[in-house]
Write a structure and sequence with these properties.
Blueprint: E1 6-11, H1 14-25, E2 37-39, E3 52-53, H2 55-58, H3 68-74, E4 79-81, H4 85-102, E5 106-110, E6 113-117, H5 128-143, E7 147-152, H6 155-162, E8 170-172, H7 178-181, H8 195-203, H9 209-213, H10 217-235, E9 252-263, H11 266-286, E10 289-300, E11 305-316, H12 319-333, E12 339-351, E13 363-364, E14 376-377, H13 379-398
Parallel strand pairs: 2-4, 7-8
Antiparallel strand pairs: 1-6, 1-7, 2-3, 5-6, 9-12, 10-11, 10-12, 13-14
């Protein structure tokens, strides 16, 4: 039986990264990630705790969870910004939606981290490391912040690996690599080994994870109860837990792609929009939903992002309708600069079984100049629905690449996008 492989995906200094990104998008000339900065506390009252820190702040010895007043003593010129938990939830949602589009078998364990089962996507990549690098790079290029990805045949070891050197890196920690990569580390590095456990182990002469792994279980149990046994198991890479996927609650369905080459013309951009529209519409149909709103996003080569949205005459899951709306929004948005990334997002979702009021555009008369002609449903929408359903069936049976529009054969679309 093939060995399972797990990824642990963790946002690098999530609160600070997300705050920095939002400030840059709002026109700030300073990237908090590049200066001594923290998120948390109240600058005026100089109280509270550090929720997140930049790498330059870490260099001053500032730690997450310590009082802000202590951090300011260590670095008097420290920049401090308040948290925005509503925005953090939105960023987390965007990340989980992007990852679930790569692989649906995801277990989110906190606002900024999750486990992913590599098995369902293994055939798409040359190795787990290749897949992890593609995912990591896509998060950075699409969402603007970085993640670390740990890879292992045990969940706890994948978690440990993601905590190795940061940021924007991929690390492995398979069971066979434990003696070289994990045992030399201090016990404080072990998952779930808190300060009180570290102190208790220190009194027993246990300093490294290797020391812990080679300590008798009954001694650990006598001093740390059942938690001592758990720590011993983790130190030896013993963990039989599996991924417990939880559906990502979407407020909308979207997708984006980083172009292999910057798009310079409408003709460069539209094939990518078509590929995205088909991907988004296919996901809507698969979930039995219709979208009432379409949004197009453009990220320029300068990394500046703009977006615009449009209410649809009636909710739809039609690839063609979403594509045409996205193109119209593109023409309203684009200022002629080179384009690095394109995205389409749908929102205002309703179940396809829910009664929907049709607009006048869903009907047409027998004569274009007759206001009183008998109205009838246009056959175009019904024909398109049958076509979309047939294509979905073929892709579901033979794979998404079994049929592809001729206009997409040479389009500059990143294969991770759909």
């Amino acid at each position: 039986m093939e060995e399972r492989v797990f990824f642990h995906i963790d946002v690098n200094s999530a609160y600070l990264s997300w705050t920095a990104l939002s400030m840059l998008q709002e026109g700030s000339g300073t990237d908090l990630r590049l200066i001594p900065a923290i998120v948390g506390g109240d600058m005026a009252k100089r109280h509270g705790v550090v929720l997140a820190k930049s790498l330059p702040a870490k260099a001053y010895g500032i730690t997450t969870g310590e009082p802000v007043i202590n951090a300011l003593r260590k670095c008097p010129n420290l920049t401090m910004v308040p948290p925005d938990h509503h925005m953090y939830q939105r960023r987390s949602q965007e990340l989980m939606e992007l990852l679930s589009n790569v692989c649906p078998d995801i277990e989110q364990v906190s606002i900024d981290e999750c486990y992913m089962d590599y098995t369902p996507i293994a055939k798409k990549y040359t190795s787990p490391e290749n897949a992890a690098h593609c995912i990591k790079d896509r998060v950075r290029d699409t969402l603007g912040f970085t993640v670390n990805i740990g890879i292992s045949d045990r969940k706890v070891l994948a978690k440990m690996a993601s905590d190795f050197k940061k940021p924007d890196l991929v690390h492995t920690l398979y069971v066979r690599e434990i003696p070289d990569k994990m045992w030399p580390l201090p016990v404080s590095s072990l998952f779930l080994c808190g300060q009180s456990s570290v102190e208790a182990l220190r009194k027993l002469g246990i300093v490294t994870i290797g020391d812990l792994a080679h300590t008798r279980r009954d001694i650990l149990e006598a001093h740390l109860k059942s938690h001592g046994i758990t720590l011993w198991q983790y130190a030896n890479g013993i963990d039989d837990s599996d991924i417990t996927p939880k559906p990502v609650k979407t407020r909308g369905v979207g997708n984006s792609t980083t172009l292999q080459q910057d798009a310079l013309t409408r003709e460069d951009a539209f094939p990518a929009l078509l590929s995205l529209a088909e991907s988004v519409a296919g996901r809507l149909r698969a979930s039995g939903e219709l979208a009432g709103m379409v949004s197009t996003e453009i990220k320029y080569a300068t990394f500046q992002s703009v977006s615009h949205q449009m209410q649809l005459p009636a909710p739809t899951a039609s690839s063609q309708a979403i594509y045409e709306t996205a193109c119209r929004l593109f023409d309203e948005l684009w200022d002629g600069r080179p384009i690095r990334l394109l995205g389409i997002r749908t929102s205002k979702l309703v179940a396809e079984t829910e009664p929907v009021q049709l607009s006048l555009f869903d009907y047409r008369g027998t004569a274009p100049d007759s206001c009183f002609s008998a109205a009838r449903p246009t056959p175009d929408s019904e024909k398109q629905q049958r076509l979309d359903k047939a294509l979905d069936g073929l892709r579901g049976k033979y794979g998404k690449d079994i049929i592809k529009r001729g206009s997409l054969m040479n389009s500059p679309v990143n294969p991770l996008s759909s």
